[in-house]
Amino acid sequence: MKTLIKKIARQLGIEISRYTPANSDMAKIQTMLSLNQIDLVLDVGANTGQYARSIRLGGRTMALVS
Description:
This is FkbM family methyltransferase. By secondary structure, this protein is mainly alpha-helical. 44% of the residues lie in helices and 9% in strands. The protein is built from three helices and two strands, in the order ααβαβ. The chain has helices at 2-11, 25-35, 50-57; strands spanning 40-42, 63-65.
């Protein structure tokens, strides 16, 4: 059944794969911030500060201007 669903999805241009938090976009950003010793983040988005919150939820304590 899984194979059939994946095959149909592929024909529609959709790739179905298992979600792993360690490979999420935010995990990759957190790793990049850590490896490059980033100590300031500017959140210049035009929304309600979700990016800034996600940075904080990741345990980062650098200066954050939102």
